[in-house]
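Researcher: Go.
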Amino acid sequence: MRPDRAVTLQDIADRLGVSRSTASFAITGRGRVSEETRRRVHEVAQELGYRPNTVARHLKGSRTGMLALRLPPDSTTMSYYMEATFGIVEEANRAGMTVVMLPTEQSADRADQLVADAVILLDPDLNDPGVHALLAGRLPVVTGEPTPDGLPEPRAWVTSEHAPAVRALMDHLLERGMRRPAMLFPELRGYWALTVRDTFEDWCADHGIRPRITELEHPAPPEVIHAAVSELVAADKEDPVDAIVTVSDGTVLSVVTSAQQLGRTVGEDLLVAALVDTEVLSLTRPSITAIDLHPREFGRRCTLAALAVLDSEGAAETAPRHDVVPITVHYRDSTRGHA
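Model: Structure:
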């Protein structure tokens, strides 16, 4: 039965036999609290009808209670960024924070006028002027993926172990008979894109294979993808491509369609794999082997990193923080052939 007065953090702490600070950390997602304790605190908070007074908390800390989120240009139709955004918003909501979306075309001179406590910047690209402006601005910035060389370092970043995953995927294709792989690479200059490209080239060098890389505009329309696939499967008639690795999640379905139109049978005489998984890739026939970057968890970790940065404001510690999110390779039917 809920009390007539407003439920406090102390009520939650007393119910669980923990300190008030532990209950506070569990509610806000800050500090060092185990997942089990956090779960129990949230259950009791819901049971008692606890409602955090976020306005008072933010006023007390001279904060706005808002996180600014900036996605890469031309990313709003890509499922990866949508899932990451959901994770960012869900975790911010748990902490009583509001997420505001920044326009990708925001001018550099407005970066210092943002009304927010921190900025979350996903996939910062070396060629994006908005990224330069935000990293040079007054607000602390947390990036989803580290900044590539040539950009200022953020206060914190979240990443994944991309290179081992790409190598595992390529090893799997090799076991299935791949000998002449090609990569369709978007014209991006961010840490993730450059890392997966470098890893592909290194893997090919380690196995004595000529790396074939076709750069595409980003995002690439279906006709551009079709032309690229046509050139790859038609080139080198004595040494045709037998596997295509796509980098962006908006490319792989067009690759499959184009390959079929060109007389290739995906999973038999042409293997197809993607470096970004989406739910639809498990439903296609054949389904597509892909790397699951766990974008919702990735987004959640970005918010937690931003909260940790805000909690440490004014502290002596200045070294950038970082977090690593595990990723998974899903091996599916499209890599059965050739063995």
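Model: The CA atoms of residues 16 and 40 lie 8 Å apart.
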